[in-house]
Amino acid sequence: LRAIYGVMYGRSSLNKLNSTCFKCKKRAKVYKPQMFPNLPIERLQCAKVFTSVGLDLSGVLHADDWVTVKTSDTQEVARVKTLNKRYYLILTRFVTRLVHLELIYNRSADEVIKALKRAFNRRGHPSLVFTDGEPSFRRADRELNLLWQEANPRRLEQGIPEMDIEFKYRTPTMEAASSGGIYERLNRNIKSILDV
Hints:
Number of helices: 6
Strand order of the largest sheet: 3-2-1-4-5
Order of helices and strands: HHEEEHEHHEH
Largest sheet: 5 strands, mixed
Shape: elongated
């Protein structure tokens, strides 16, 4: 047909016809099963509680604090209600999705280290921590390793076993939030419970 006649806009006309025809669309569609990657080995191993955990820092909780204020001119003492932001740190066990929450006052690395020490003292130290690339987590990782190396001679004298915590970071972009899906999903559940 093209050898004899010059058909103008032939391909676009056929595409328009095929896009409006339901039977043509159904016939042309090819269904493929969705491919899922294998679960990481840390999610499948039965081990001591909180051996491999996911770590996330999130949530803005508004807390009412009462502060005692003394006025300078009358020297009267008054209690004033202030609204402050608080955050929480989520530690999630990978196998059973057990959750440990720690309340912190700000997102600094010092507060994160304090919260991690409290959580490790209560739940035991993990061997593997999955987290996003937040700067406070990276600094906490460096400082915990430095503290542990400085305490090495005393630790060996007292017979304390070695605490080797490996931090694994996922990509910090918003598009890759699904790679930390286990603790991001629990974060959403906690926010809905706390009505944040």
